[in-house]
Amino acid sequence: MASSSGAGKAPESEQGPERAGNLRSVLLTSVLQLEPLDVDLFRGRHYWVPVTQRLFGGQIVGQALVAAAKAVTDNLEVHSLHCYFVRAGDPSVPVLYQVERTHTGRSFSVRSVKAIQHGKPIFICQASFQRRQPSPVQHQFQMPAVPPPEELLTQEQLIQKYLRDPNLLERYRKGLQRMLAQEVPIEMKPVNPPDFFHQNSQEPKQLFWVRAKGYLGECDMKLHCCVAAYISDYAFLRTALLPHQHHKVTFMVSLDHTMWFHAPFRADQWMLYECESPWAGGSRGLVQGRLWCRDGVLAVTCAQEGVIRVQEEQLASSSKL
């Protein structure tokens, strides 16, 4: 599929480059740009590094999918992506992406990608591509009923609002200040913002509208999928922490990440990201997500498991007799 036009119909204000003042998305011009080094070998550089000072997992997933897509013909569409994070990424050096053409069939083709730093793999994935095949067998879940993005505050506006409140816990204040200072290439509008003023348990579910900053245009659908791969990892695993806000997190990192692409969409138009965590235990958490187009079409389904370690609660000191 050469173009994503017509997918996820959006209001006229979102259609066309005028939405972003004719500015091309940095995801298109920088983050997902790979330098070809040899046949099926590419180099990727970094744009945004989280406060953890590890490479952002969504960037690695997105760049790996770009590398895989360069090794298939234009008439194939990505339908699934299965990834493992095996080592922490080093933000001080580029990442090499090595593609293996695992299988090329009449309907489906598989490409394996290995991301390498310091001579060792930090990430491995397999992406499967399909020749378009219409079918009368179709169904999907129903999109949740939520306020439209025009009625909600952006994440930056929410953070500024929280920081003005004197009742905000100090440990949250420092984290929010760090978030506000970052230049993240995506826009978010939370539907059910987390409660930063109390340590109450919350349902392990969050919803937010999300889109790429800037304009992507009528480019190949595979590129919109690469942008969605980048977006899908942002704040995803933290869904598992919502019922456990009384714990101090000491370590949190993704173990694996899976995506299934169902229908065409525009990653530079508002999409609803529905995230939930059905389980956590054994120092791990599982999260599932669905990306919805504004017209109710289910575009992408995601799943991820990650390591979550928290500070052990101090045992009450025994009384001295």
Overview of the structural elements:
This protein is an alpha+beta fold and 321 residues long. The protein has 5 helices and 12 strands. The protein has helices spanning 26-31, 57-69, 155-163, 170-181, 221-232; strands at 34-38, 41-44, 76-85, 95-104, 108-117, 120-131, 186-190, 205-212, 249-261, 271-281, 284-293, 298-310. α2 (57-69) packs antiparallel against α5. The radius of gyration is 20 Å and the shape is globular. The termini are far apart. Residues 1-8 and 314-321 have low confidence and may be disordered.
Low-confidence segments = 1-8, 314-321
Q: Helical proportion? A: 10-25%
- The count of helical stretches stands at 5
How much strand content do the residues show? 25-35%
User: What's the order of the H and E elements?
Assistant: HEEHEEEEHHEEHEEEE
Strand neighbour order, sheet with most strands? 1-2-4-5-6-3-9-12-11-10-8-7
> How many strands appear in the DSSP assignment?
12
Whole-angstrom Rg? 20 Å
C-alpha termini separation? 77 Å
Q: What global shape is seen?
A: globular
Structural class: alpha+beta
Query: What number is the mean pLDDT?
Result: 88
Summarize the main sheet.
Answer: 12 strands, antiparallel
Family: Belongs to the C/M/P thioester hydrolase family.
Region (Disordered): 1-20
Subcellular location: Peroxisome matrix
Domain Acyl-CoA thioesterase-like N-terminal HotDog: 47-130
What's this entry about, in short?
The chain has 321 residues and is α+β, with helices and mostly antiparallel strands. The protein has five helices and twelve strands.
Set down the secondary structure blueprint:
Elements: H1 26-31, E1 34-38, E2 41-44, H2 57-69, E3 76-85, E4 95-104, E5 108-117, E6 120-131, H3 155-163, H4 170-181, E7 186-190, E8 205-212, H5 221-232, E9 249-261, E10 271-281, E11 284-293, E12 298-310
